[in-house]
Amino acid sequence: MKLNLLFSFFSVLILSGCAEVGIGYLTEQGIGQLKIQWNGVENEKILADPTVPEDIKKKILLVGEYKKFFYFFFNEKASRIYIKTTTLEHKAVSYLVIASPHNKIEPHEFHFPFVGAFPYIGFFDKNSAKDFSENLQQDNFVTWIRPVYAYSTLGYLEDRILSSFFHYDEVELAELVFHELFHTIFFVKDDVNLNENLANLYGREMLKEYFKERKELQSYIQTEEKIEKRNQRIVELIDLLKEEFNKMGGFLTDEKADVLTNRFVSEVFRPEVHSYCEKIELDKEDCKIDEDWNQASFAAFMTYEEQQDFLGHLKQKMNLDLKQFLVWLRNEQKIFSEQNKFKHFTDYLKAKVTDATLDSH
Q1: Where are the alpha helices (DSSP H) in the chain?
Q2: Are the C-beta atoms of residues 326 and 74 closer than 8 Å to each other?
Q3: What integer pLDDT is reported at residue 316 of this predicted model?
């Protein structure tokens, strides 16, 4: 997913056991989730409150409109998601910790029953995220902490509208809502990359369905196209670093990997991305070059960017609209669950792309 927007944080993780982090983590995250649920206020009550600013009321009404449009579009029964609003104590709702080995650009996976493996672990408290990050560093991982502004519980709970939503403009908010709502109608266990990138695809395409030819959509799309170009350039640059790692093979110690990464970031990565953003006329705020970059943040970026083109090309090759593509995905997921050749649904779909029979779907 676009790193400049958000990550989805599946809070259902707190509903299941996790040997990697222990009961303390489960308890703390459970309390955090319950606070969000308990503090939710009925939207109608907020809308009737004269002390609530009109711009906040407008955003709440917009979320309701987007939700209604989404479920009607797919002819799905609307869930009870976003019927209440929770005001957060901080700008972000939670914080993701991503870890990578020093000598690889590869996210460490955290395993949870029922929902599978995830390339991150989430915390509602920033200090807890920092503490866990430091523990991972002691276990010889490079880490990165990312703030989260929205997440989905996949229908396990009644997700709230969060005050973190309100700093998005009308179009950004629509993409966020469409993205999160897609998680409520389609989810594949053990394939977080696919889930996120499908939600990205549907969130982006649903904007076109909702806003049609409105000027604000065209402006947003133009910026997003520039960001996608920047993202492609970042992927190319990260691949260069990965090649350097591979060249050193067994001689690449953790210390050498860190030195190589730091030098790459300062001497190659930042200057090149900055120059490229200027070339495509992408402003500094959207360029995001000042973020922390290391093996973990590079790994996170690759996790959410590598499959973007694959899914778009798959849909285009099959010549299916959004509704038809969803029906096809659901059917293929059933077939996938009954086979033993592929471990991940992503691999199964990529094989379908090369299947000569795909053109006749």
Answers
A1: 22-38, 43-47, 54-73, 126-138, 170-185, 192-211, 215-248, 254-264, 270-279, 284-287, 295-305, 308-318, 322-337, 345-354
A2: yes
A3: 87
Measured between alpha carbons, how far is 43 from 67 in angstroms, rounded to an integer?
Answer: 14
| 4 torsion bin: left (phi>0), alpha (psi -120 to 50), beta (else) | alpha
The tokens for 356 are 């000569």
**6: pLDDT strictly greater than 60:** no
Name the percent of the chain lying above pLDDT 90: 60
Which pLDDT does position 45 carry in this prediction?
A: 97
pLDDT beyond 80 at 13: no
- Kindly report which listed range (51-65, 145-159, 166-180, 277-291) carries the lowest average pLDDT score: 145-159
Picking from 78-87, 113-122, 137-146, 303-312, which range would have the lowest pLDDT averaged per residue? 303-312
CA neighbours closer than 13 Å in the CB half-sphere of residue 131: 9
Cα(296)–Cα(302) distance, rounded to whole angstroms? Answer: 10
Question: C-alpha distances in angstroms, 45 versus 40, 52, 67?
Answer: 11, 10, 19
Give the whole-angstrom CA distance, residue 117 versus residue 23: 18
Q: Is the pTM of this model over 0.90?
A: no
Query: CB of 141 within 8 A of CB of 294?
Result: no
Tokens of 309: 């083109």
- Are 146 and 96 in contact, with CB atoms under 8 Å apart? yes
Tokens of 81: 């998601």
Q: How far apart are CA 33 and CA 71, in angstroms?
A: 25
Best CA proximity match to 332, nearest among 313, 355, 316: 355
Residue-wise DSSP of 240-301: HHHHHHHHHGGG--HHHHHHHHHHHIIIIIHHHHHHHHHHTT--HHHH-TTS--SHHHHHHH
Structure tokens at 225: 């196209």
Would you say residue 334 has pLDDT above 90?
yes
CB 173 within 8 A of CB 220: no
Task: In whole angstroms, give the CA distance from residue 173 to residue 154.
Answer: 19
